[in-house]
Amino acid sequence: MEILDLFYYVFIILPSVYVGMTLAFYTMSALSISTPKSTFYGRTLAAYGTVIICAWWGVAVSIFLRLIGKHRMSQWATARAFKWTMRYTTDVRFEIISGKEHLSTRPCVIIANHQSALDVLLLGTVWPLYCSVTAKASLRFVPILGWFMALSGTVFIDRANRSSAIQAFDRAAAEMRSARQSVFIFPEGTRSNASGPVLGPFKKGAFHLAVRAQVPLIPVVAANYHGVLSLKERRFRAGRIPVKVLPPIPTQGLTAADVDQLTRDTRELMAKELIHVTNSPLGRKATHANPTPAEEDLAQLTSSCEANLPNGVPGTAGRVAMASGMER
User: Fold this and answer.
1) pLDDT tens digits along 11-47
2) Could you tell me the CA-to-CA distances from 238 to 42, 75, 91, 92, 306 in Å, in that order?
3) How many whole angstroms from its chain centre is CA 318?
4) Which residue among 146, 187, 276, 312 has the highest number of C-beta atoms inside a 10 angstrom radius?
């Protein structure tokens, strides 16, 4: 009976309480009797619930794809599931406004600015086929999430052990060359939690890896979204966050001696683009806690125009940015 009681508690009672609390917060919001904090807790519960569900999905998909020899697609399948599930549970989404075609470059090292835990949703949006993430070694031992990461080919890095980290990057470089597998890295190494378009200092691991493998770097820049999510201010609202994918930066012929300059140049480029995309109509709405009616209207107009454009035609956000001198 003790085992049955434990099963009932873990798989029936806890999930029911979790779902009930989430629905209660969302109901309060819908009835306009909630505070910003109740909305924050509702979306936070929904987001963590989505992570758990998609992690279980990732474990199952990884096992299946490994059995048929397609395990390198596991992280893509899980990322896409998370993207669409989060859209319906939290109404938060990242949207690529330019450069989506660059994500087909393979193999490559994809790098992006890192703001908060919500960047997992950014991964779900930009993740290409045949790509793996790097993660700190301790995540390997986290239940469910660690199982998925280990099964799907994550590159684990022991940051406290330099020789071990170098060996991990050497193995990753060899895998990139032999299997044409791309790798995704946040070069800041930690979340910025910035309230504006600010980049932290870059670690050099991603750049060493790109040079060792002689593959291009693909910078991805997401607008600052402090207005959508702020843990300090207990704010988590619906929103659309614009993303730009920049053209590939070649590393062919570069050596370890070029890594410092490559790191500085890439960070400077991404810092400028971060300001540009944050100042776009969608970006201003995402970064401000309380967007003005004018910002709301401009963002809505931008979205409506983009929805009616044929494929391949530059989006209104890009045109507005160019017209206002925010894009080179």
Assistant:
1) 454 455 445 555 555 555 554 445 667 788 888 888 8
2) 12, 25, 5, 5, 20
3) 21
4) 187
